[in-house]
Amino acid sequence: MPPKFTLMRFFTFLFFLFAAFQTNAQQTVFNVPTADVLDKGKVYVELDAAFKFNNQESLRRFSSFVPRVVVGAGGRTEVGLNVIGNINPGADSTILVPTVKTKFFQNKKQDLTIFGGTNFYIPVRNRSYKFGTYSYLAAAKTFGKTRVTAGGFAVSKNVFAPKAVRAGGQFAIEQTINSKLTFAADWFTGKHANGYFTPGIIYKPHPKVTAYFSYSIGNADARRGNHYFLFELGYNF
Predict the structure, then answer these.
(1) 12 pLDDT more than 90
(2) How buried is 126 (Cβ within 10 angstroms: 0-12 exposed, 13-18 middle, 19+ buried)?
(3) How many other CB atoms are there within 10 angstroms of residue 145's CB atom?
């Protein structure tokens, strides 16, 4: 493959990876939204950091930092904002991502919740598109100390991948060990910028502090280096 084409494909992939990945400005497992919604007036802030330490064919070395804030709006709804596209090395492609998530149905006796939401992508720097959306609908069911989440998503072109409108499934499982430790994993289907399987642990050293330690593995080109560390630190006010 000619070097020029390889370099062009790398930068295209890297841009769309961070234009779409880690962009759910609401409470998530690692990437997939959870059924949890903040109570009215509650505020949650988080910093997500992704790191890849070695250069490989599919995905080169990088670091990325994504700040976000989520606010309980009442009516079983929360709203949030991410600032994404902060990548090193490479030119930043800043995108503002306002979001909304709502519980449409909740049966506490059966531990069953149906919820959904939409993220709105507004590029403001080094834009490759003008506007985009990612919408989803999912259900969460708890069995003892295990919560399973399953749903589907639809996304406009250029958000997860160029040219085509994408759709697929999103899934998560959380296994509570004790009040401080949870084992978890989540997964977006598809071979696009959000198509990753991410296992890890969620640790709460304090009731207001949550730390997430995980590793994201690409649905495509994992053997060629499409995988990286993901760390998140959140605080509930």
Answers:
(1) no
(2) middle
(3) 11
Q: Please enumerate in sequence order all residues whose Cβ is within 8 A of that of 222, keeping only pairs 6 or more positions apart, or say none.
A: none
Dist. CA 147–CA 141, nearest whole Å: 6
Q: What does the pLDDT look like over 175-222, one tens digit per residue? A: 999 999 999 999 999 988 889 999 999 999 999 999 999 999 999 999
Residue 67 buriedness (CB in 10 A; 0-12 / 13-18 / 19+): middle
Q: How many CB atoms lie within 10 A of CB 34?
A: 21
Token digits of residue 62: 């990088």
What band does 11 get if pLDDT is binned at 50, 70 and 90? very low
Contact 125, 93 (CB under 8 A): yes
